[in-house]
Specification:
4 domains; eight-stranded mixed sheet; five-stranded mixed sheet
């Protein structure tokens, strides 16, 4: 690659500074714009306790180095934070309880959180500088600038650069340890103590930041075996390797203030026994799993698809494209050239081995809570993609313009998301507003939107609202006055009136919306079926529910079983005065008068959906839990007779032939009363031309005039010309005990035409008869009985 001229070197220097200042400025503003996230009080409390007391009982799953760095500014806080040793939970080592009293209850909270976040921002600057330095060392200053640009505008790195957590610190520490190790390993003159000792110190610090840095040990061992420069035997590195292990151990021990004591399962004193606590806690967490959501599915233990999907949906498309491009070019280069393979391995393996090993281990993780666990891979990938600048040197000029446009778009997309970088999803997920359908938790909502929620509610004069979130933090710290919804500790375990929530304003975290850490994963499905009024930071959805119209009934399908008891219906709908009706929706339908709800077992058939035209899906439980899967539909203002055929019918006695009924029968226009009980309204048929052996479906529509005093059946016969039935479809799926005047009943009649049915016309005859005496209901006109059945239409059996 061509060396830079003095002028270009000056431009590159200014470009570096501008990018680092952009990273600093945008993250600093985001720090002030976002509220405290779920894990921050735990990390801050843990680090503060370690600094103040020298006791490491609250280290939990992560070693203390970065947490102590984040908590260091709080030693100067005014008013001072409470001494962790004096609050509930200290003796038991209960980090959550101690954090509630030390950090969550502190006021003003904003000043504390900002002070704890600044050290993470400084670490982010170090990370970006390291990305530039390693890319420059490998591929030249232009590649370094490209890598720094990708780093400075990567939304996932920016999202965690302003949070007092361990994820970005782990990425920086692992990158720093890998870079210093690479410099020691790849020195052409052979191993050097001047580079070995700093690499050992950085490795020890990385091990003190996060437990995942332990993966560096086998990675470094393999690199030492296969990626050292040719001509340097392994024995030349052994002495410095042993010394480096000792220095790394000493550095890690120094983080624990040279602690000596016993640990769980170890009966004799050992150095830094507290370092075993994070490993034991992490091991326990992996065994127990963690509530997670992936692409419409809730689960508790790991799914190997989680991190591949997260990487595909939350990594910017430009980064994905560059990775694919570089990977293909490198593969083709290796296939075409056999010479220099060892040199290529020595160049690329230090960049690729750790991401590959790390990603492979993530597939088996039982903790699926966020893309942030992939952050340690990201700097390596950005450095690797930067070698594409070699291609820039030979590309046609218009491709350079295309590249400039792509980089501009990359930065613009990130900046337009400011300050909600955490909510970034690429176009594969539908952007930030579509990501909640695939991933939630720390991929989207970590509690960072409460300040924006407060501004939104104040602008609309909302004084009180219902709120669902999972955190130990206190929304009152930001002036949010709310009624708690699950899973807040003081909320009811299940959302009241979950099929028909009370009118008002609701703010629901997308994590809880998708059923994570709530008693029933479908608890908030009523809201999932609606478009939110507002999306705060793409992460908290606000719903402004208007009162429902007056409702009179709830009708439940009993086929194969009724999903809900009467108590569950009234509790879920919030009404105790509803008419509760039941019917067999596999063969019939009930349209009570007025407004109401249908409760149907899932899956809902095509015929049932046709009867629900105009109804709105209000709630759906897809999984079997305390009840079988079911769906609730709002039936407000339905028009049940849409699509029904209303034509003249012929009333005649049963003994008349069809042709006689059509010529001499009494012609009537529906509705046609049958006795004092029913009125025939019309029918639908899927076809008027059938073939022998086929199934034929006819639906008849009836209005209840007066509930009968005994059971009855609806009669539908297919008659030959001689009056004998070819097929019979009698039945009734709405028990007469359920009938009330004004109800409309639809009965679905399925006929199976015998294979020997002769071609020609068939007549459809309908009526009703009582059981068990099989007495047909009469058809009367002006008080005179004119028949006991209706011939409604003619069908044709084709050849």
């Amino acid at each position: 690659m061509k060396p830079l001229t003095a002028k270009h070197q000056a431009h590159a220097g200014w470009s570096r500074l501008v990018l680092l200042w952009l990273l600093w400025g945008s993250t600093l503003y985001a720090i002030h714009a976002t509220s405290i996230t779920l894990d921050e009080p735990l990390h801050i409390t843990s680090g503060y306790a370690c600094l103040l007391t020298g006791d490491y009982r609250l280290v939990e799953e992560h070693p203390p180095l970065l947490k102590m760095l984040q908590a260091a500014p709080l030693l100067l806080a005014q008013p001072p934070l409470p001494d962790p040793r004096t609050v509930p939970g200290w003796n038991e080592g209960n980090l959550i309880e101690v954090a509630r009293h030390v950090v969550v209850a502190y006021r003003p909270l904003d000043a504390l959180v900002t002070a704890a976040r600044i050290p993470t921002l400084l670490v982010a600057i170090v990370l970006a500088a390291l990305v530039y330095r390693w890319a420059s060392d490998l591929f030249g200053p232009r590649a370094g600038l490209l890598a720094l640009f990708l780093c400075a505008f990567d939304p996932n790195l920016l999202a965690h650069a302003g949070v007092a957590a361990t994820d970005l610190g782990a990425a920086a520490a692992i990158l720093a340890a890998s870079y210093t190790f690479w410099r020691w390993l790849r020195q052409r003159s052979g191993p050097s103590w001047r580079r070995a000792l700093p690499a050992a110190v950085v490795l020890g610090m990385a091990l003190g930041v996060k437990s995942t840095a332990l993966l560096l040990v086998p990675v470094f061992g393999l690199l030492l075996l296969v990626a050292r420069p040719s001509g340097h035997p392994l024995r030349a590195y052994l002495g410095q390797t042993v010394a480096a292990i000792g220095v790394a151990f000493f550095t890690l021990w120094a983080i624990y203030r040279f602690e000596i004591g016993t640990a769980p399962g170890v009966s004799f004193p050992i150095p830094m026994p507290s370092h075993l606590l994070p490993l034991l806690k992490l091991q326990q967490h992996l065994r127990e799993g963690h509530a997670a959501f992936l692409w419409g599915r809730n689960y508790h233990h790991g799914d190997w698809r989680y991190f591949p999907v997260a990487f595909a949906l939350k990594t910017p498309p430009l980064t994905l494209g560059l990775l694919l491009w570089v990977g293909l070019r490198f593969t083709l280069h290796v296939l075409r050239q056999t010479a220099g393979i060892k040199r290529q391995i020595g160049r690329w393996l230090p960049l690729t081995l750790f991401p590959v090993v790390y990603f492979a281990t993530s597939l088996f993780s039982g903790i699926n809570i966020g893309y942030r666990h992939l952050l340690p891979m990201l700097p390596f990938l950005l450095i690797g993609t930067s070698q594409i600048v070699f291609w820039f040197q030979t590309a046609r000029p218009y491709w350079r313009w295309v590249s400039a446009a792509l980089l501009t778009g990359y930065a613009a997309v990130t900046l337009t998301l400011f300050p909600w970088y955490l909510a970034y999803f690429n176009f594969l997920a539908g952007g930030p507003d579509g990501g909640y359908r695939y991933l939630v938790d720390s991929n989207l909502d970590w509690g960072q939107t409460w300040k924006a929620l407060k501004r939104y509610l104040d602008a609309r004069g909302v004084q009180h609202f219902w709120f669902s979130h999972y955190t130990i933090n206190d929304p009152h710290a930001y002036g949010l006055d709310y009624d708690p919804l699950p899973p807040w500790p003081d909320a009811p375990p299940v959302l009241p009136r979950r099929f028909n929530p009370a009118p008002g304003v609701y703010a629901i975290s997308t994590t809880q919306l998708q059923g994570v850490v709530v008693a029933d994963p479908e608890m908030f499905d009523y809201f999932r079926q609606r478009e939110p009024t507002a999306r705060i930071g793409h992460a908290v959805f606000v719903y402004d529910l208007a009162p429902t119209p007056p409702v009179q009934w709830a009708a439940q399908c009993t086929s194969p079983v009724a999903p809900l008891s009467a108590e569950q219906l009234t509790e879920g709908l919030g009404h105790t005065d509803l008419r509760l009706a039941a019917f067999d929706c596999s063969q019939s339908w009930l349209y009570p008068a007025g407004n109401g709800w249908y409760v149907l077992p899932r899956p809902v058939s095509a015929w049932q959906r046709a009867q629900l035209q105009g109804a709105r899906l209000a709630y759906e439980q897809k999984q079997t839990g305390f009840t079988p899967p079911f769906a609730v539909y709002e039936a407000f203002g339905l028009t049940p007779l849409a699509g029904m055929t209303v034509a003249a019918v012929h009333a005649a006695p049963a003994e008349w032939l069809p042709a006689q009924a059509l010529t001499a029968g009494t012609v009537l226009t529906p509705p046609v009363a049958l006795g004092e009980t029913l009125a025939f309204l019309g029918y639908t048929t899927e076809t008027t031309l059938a073939q022998a052996g086929e199934a034929l479906v006819v639906a008849t529509y009836w209005r209840v005039l007066t509930p009968p005093g005994q059971p009855l059946s609806l009669m539908v016969h297919l008659l030959r010309a001689d009056g004998t039935p070819v097929a019979v479809g009698d039945g009734l799926g709405v028990p007469v005990e359920q009938w009330q005047p004004g109800d409309i009943i639809v009965q679905r009649h399925t006929f199976q035409l015998p294979p020997e049915t002769a071609p020609g016309p068939l007549w459809l005859s309908v009526g009703a008869y009582t059981l068990p005496d099989v007495q047909r209901l009469p058809v009367s006109v002006n008080g005179a009985v004119v028949g006991d059945r209706l011939v409604v239409t003619q069908l044709e059996v084709k050849r």
